[in-house]
Write a structure and sequence with these properties.
By secondary structure, the protein is of the alpha+beta class. The protein contains 4 helices and 4 strands. It has a single domain, classed as Alpha-Beta Plaits. 45% of the residues lie in helices and 24% in strands. It has a 4-stranded antiparallel sheet, with helices on both faces.
């Protein structure tokens, strides 16, 4: 429960930073050596609890290292472990399993 509350606080902090600033800040901060970030744009995210549902489903996929969400823009930044990849069909299914729809999928830059 404590981890959940920390995540909610994190999401609220991102929301208060502003859409563009938050998206850039957390996407850049999650990309470490050997890992790569995928951007999922999700329709319908309205609150931290919505974000938590998506985080839980996407975060449970094989190879996912980190999931960061900006509720205002619907951006879900998924950092994959070194050597792991995420394809659009898998991302779409995870988002759908959380009760939302995938609007757009972007792979890592340079890939």
């Amino acid at each position: 429960m404590l981890k959940f509350l920390k995540r909610v606080a994190f999401v609220l902090a991102l929301t208060s930073m502003g859409t563009l600033g938050a998206a850039s800040a957390f996407a850049a901060s999650t990309n470490s050596a050997g890992s790569h970030v995928y951007k999922l744009y999700v329709n319908g995210l309205a609150c931290p609890f919505c974000a938590y549902g998506v985080e839980k489903k996407v975060g449970g996929l094989a190879g996912v290292k980190n999931v960061d969400i900006d509720i205002d823009s619907g951006l879900v930044a998924v950092t994959m472990a070194s050597g792991a990849n995420l394809n659009e069909a898998t991302a779409k299914q995870a988002v759908s399993d959380a009760g939302f729809s995938l609007r757009k999928f972007e792979g890592p830059k340079g890939k």
